[in-house]
UniProtKB/TrEMBL annotation:
Keywords: Amino-acid biosynthesis, Aminotransferase, Histidine biosynthesis, Pyridoxal phosphate, Transferase. Signal peptide: none annotated. Homodimer. It comes from the Bacteria. Its EC number is 2.6.1.9. Pfam families: Aminotran_1_2. HAMAP family: HisC_aminotrans_2. This is Histidinol-phosphate aminotransferase. Its cofactor is pyridoxal 5'-phosphate. The modification N6-(pyridoxal phosphate)lysine is found at residue 228. It comes from Microlunatus parietis. GO terms for biological process: L-histidine biosynthetic process. Pathway: Amino-acid biosynthesis; L-histidine biosynthesis; L-histidine from 5-phospho-alpha-D-ribose 1-diphosphate: step 7/9. Belongs to the class-II pyridoxal-phosphate-dependent aminotransferase family. Histidinol-phosphate aminotransferase subfamily.
Amino acid sequence: PAATAPARLDDLPLRPELVGEEPYGAPQLDVPYRLNVNENPYSPSAAVIADIAAAAATAATAANRYPDREARALRDDLARYLGHGLTADEVWAANGSNEVMLHVLGAFGGPGRSVLSFAPTYSMYPEYARDTHTTWLAAPRADDFTIDPDQAVAAIEQHRPDVVFVTSPNNPTGTAVALSTLELIIEAAPGVVVVDEAYYEFARAGTPSALELLPRYPRLAVTRTMSKAFAFAGGRLGYLAASPAFVDALRIVRLPYHLSAVTQAVARAALAHADELLARVADLRDARDDLAAWLAGRGFEVAESDANFILFGKFADRHAVWQGLLDHGVLIRETGPKEWLRVSAGTPEEMAAFKDALDRVTKEQG
Ligand code: PMP
C-alpha cells in the first residue's frame, strides 16, 4: 500500500549501530555570552570582509564549472603558511579538520581496524570511528591529563591500533604533549599517527609543533584548522601536513570536488590576512592565563591549558552550575570528565561576564 504518513526514523532501515544516536553538537543558543565551542570571539575587520566578499564574487563568475578538485592554489598557500619547507604535495585540506579526520579513517581505518586515542579527549573521534566502521579504543590519561609515555606505549603494544590520534593541545583539557612522548608513540605505533594540533597557535611560546617530526616519520600526519586561531570557523577549512604518500591516500577517499570553489577562494583570501587574523592570539592566551589564575584564586581546580579554553572543577553537580551560568546569559560547555566544565577564552567583556556569573552562581548554589 502507498504510504500515507511520513516515515518516522524508527520505521526506516537505519544501520543498527546508529539506532538511538543523536546528531552531535553543542547547543547553539542565542545568549549574550557564548563561550562553549572555543571560537575566536573577534570578528573579521572590514578589510578582511571586503577581500572575502571579492574572492567569493570572483569564484561566482565560474560557478557553472566544478572547482579545482585538487585545491592546488589553496594547498600551496597553506604549505607556505606552515613553513618547515612543506610543499602543496605534503598538504591536504577539507571542510574543517573534522572532515580531514574522516578522510584519515576512511583511508587507514575501516572494518576490522581500530583507532586509539587518549581519553578524555575530543568527543567527535568516536563518531568518526563509528561512521567509518572503525573500532574505537581509548587509553586513559594520567590524573593531571598528561599522557604517560610508558602507559601510552604499553596501550599501543597491547592493542596494535591501525590509527593513533594524539591531540595536542588536547580538547577538552588543554594539555600539550611533549615531542619526546610523541616520538615514543610514533615509534611504537604499527600504523599511522595523527597529531591533532587544532589549538597549536595558542600554545605557550616555545612549544614545538609535531611538524618538526614529519621529515623523520612518513606515517605521521599533523592536522590544523582555520577555525580557532584564524577566527575562521564559519569558513570551514581544516588541513593536514604529511608525506606526499599519506596525502595520496586521503585523495582516494575524498568526495570529488569536496572543497567548493567558494570555500577555496575565501580561505585563500583569509590566509592572505594571516597576520591580522592571528593578531588576537596573544590576547586570547593572556585571557586564558588570567582566567586560570582567577579560577584558581576562587579555589577551583584548573587544568593547565595551552589552548584557548580552560577545564575547571570540580563540581558534584556540574549540570546545575552550567544551567546557573546559562540563566545569567553565559553559555559554557558541559564536556569531558564528569565533575568538570569547559569555558572558552574570550574578550575582556566576555571574561568579566563569565566571572561575574560564576560568582553569582557559586553564591546562589552555596
Ligand atoms: N580537533 C579538535 C581537537 C577540536 O577541538 C576541533 C573543534 N572543536 C576540531 C578538531 C574540528 O575543528 P574544525 O572541523 O572546525 O576544523
